[in-house]
Amino acid sequence: QLLADGRFHSGEELGAVLGVSRSAVWKCLRRLEEEYNVELFRVPGKGYRLAEPLSLLSYELSAAALARLGWQLHFRQTVDSTNAEALRLLRSGAAAPLVVIAESQTSGRGRRGRAWVSPASQNIYYTLTLKVFDGPQGLSGLSLVVGLAVLHALRRAGIQNAGLKWPNDIYADGKKIAGILLELTGDPADVCHVIIGIGINVNMTSSAKDIGQPWTSVRAQIGVMADRSALVNFLSEALHCYMERRMHEGFSSLRVEWEANNIWQGKRCTLSTGTREVKGLVLGVDEVGALRLLVDGKEQRFSGGELSLRLDHDS
């Protein structure tokens, strides 16, 4: 937190604030570099500074915002994945609704087993866990509603050109800016919990590696470092609002809004089902969130967790 402003701070100054020796400060900074992969500059006579400022998350602000919504916050500095931590909390007896937020993930996960790049203190790694009582109907269109909430939060953060890609992605300027991973635990036909993982690229820089597709970030879109705590609170408020609407009115009441923000509406796409590929024109979604494709002149509908949609080059 002391270094987050990006300015130089001497070892003596840091030690005085923390109540430790300059040697202890040096050891702590070495550990920060190794464990969090942050870049530090050391200049004799000036001290230490980060390569660039950081926007750190605020437990106090997020906990207060979530308490107003009736949700409990579980904050972690480092975790393998926020979804995995949410599952562990459920198994240990924690009650839903609960939210897990982390500064970094060591094994972040996306859809279809892909890794989610999760550098420390740059993005948002957020999991909301809810109890679902009415079986498959209680999951109808859920990932699409979460997408609308993420989109709303991004627009509050200043990104007006973002849109949705069925079923779980948010794009800006044709590049991925956020993704959603839903996982179930319990009996889907009866009472279960849904674990909703959300990753948003916030202040991640172009130096990030190992991302297998074009991506962007809030910072890249608005031109300045974004306040991650503010965006977390925007996200929580939007999720609560859209979940309430879905609970009382169903996904069908949000269908028109989702289609209005569908970046591939009316475009030719290829849907991969794992065993085959289907080419068609995207018509939109139905009243439960299934994808509607015009295939060889006939409408077909598709839903499921392992489906993947990509844009045809000639569209």
Q: Could you tell me the strand content as a percent range?
A: 25-35%
Structural class: alpha+beta
Per CATH, the class of the largest domain reads Alpha Beta
Query: Kindly, what is the distance between the CA atoms of the first and last residues, rounded to a whole number of angstroms?
Result: 48 Å
Q: What is the average per-residue confidence, as pLDDT, rounded to a whole number?
A: 91
Q: Quaternary state, please?
A: single chain
Inertia-based shape? globular
Largest sheet: 7 strands, mixed
How many helical stretches? 8
CATH superfamily of the largest domain: Bira Bifunctional Protein, Domain 2
Please tell me how large the radius of gyration is.
21 Å
Query: Strand order, biggest sheet?
Result: 3-4-5-9-8-7-6
CATH architecture of the largest domain: 2-Layer Sandwich
Helix content: 25-40%
Q: State the low-pLDDT regions, or none.
A: none
Total strands: the figure is 14
What is the succession of H and E elements?
Answer: HHEEHEHEEHEEEEHHHEEEEE
CATH domain topology of the largest domain: BirA Bifunctional Protein, domain 2
State the domain count.
3
